[in-house]
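Board notes (copied after class):
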Amino acid sequence: MINSIKIVNFRGFEETKLEGCRRINVVVGGNGSGKTALLEALFTVAGQSPEVVLRLRQWRGYEGAFSGVPRHVEDAMWRDLFYKLDKRKIASISISGSGVHNRSVTVSYGQASDLLIPIDQSLDASDGVYSAPVTFEWTAPNGVVARITPQIVNGQLSLPPAPSVLFETFFFAANQPVSATETVTRFSTLSRLNREQPVVDQFVREFPEVRGLSIQTHAGVPMLFANVTPFSEKVPLNIVSGGINKLAALLSTVCYLKRSIVLIDEIENGFYFERLPAVWRSLATLADGSDCQIFATTHSAECLRAAAEALDPNKYTLIQAIREGSASRLLISGGEDAREAISGGLEVRR
């Protein structure tokens, strides 16, 4: 798993470091404190192409299409990665841990004279190949460095790949619906490999009204169905409950690949507060079984109390994102101290 994280000049972080991450890491803090930015940093360092940054933009609510002068498009795509939007400095993210979980990335801008120079000087501003001013450098566990400079080729962005990653990272964005297609695909893979039973067992144990899960076609479309009391036939899971549907997506993802990292922004969304202990218990059980690590943000005091109640204090941490002036920093506490603080009624979300 990831044990330590260092972030420099990325988003709202000038420089911050975490040591002692565990199986489940619960991230709290006020609006704009850096909770989501921490998840984005992890997703970026584990990426295989600058394309991951474009996905982060969409999850933040930006439009997917670009138009205008190429130089302005370039700034729109990359500049907000840098602390205080200062592209003169190098942004860097590094993670270290067990085995494959050692990786780093730096993001840097070229000088003004390097910006968007056409390879063929006869081409006008809408054609040809242009080197972007930003460069990504990923360093893999074996020390191999890939230096990637995106290009605009005939008006389209070209993104060469980074070093291959030996672990997968999944991001559940707060403002994006859970993808039914991805959930079905992952559950189907688990079923084909005879590995779906732990997911089903958790549902049956924590939600007695659910007696089983299976993939069925509905109007020709594969969907996840459930045996649910009191229905006499199986029904699509997404009409049973939005929260149960989300949990199926989370649990299927946690079980999908060994040693993966699952990032969940605002984990409490969609869950009734009395369900939250069951959510944490199910995630913790399956994360142990698949050697998966979870980083999840929350604004909810009920969600924090549920975590303190349900999780093994030796297997989780509380990460506090704190905004001080223009910079954010991160503090980490073991589950033992977090449980004591939460149970004692201390406000740990700021």
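Comment from the instructor: Residues 242-256 form the longest helix (15 residues). Confidence is low (pLDDT under 50) at residues 112-127.
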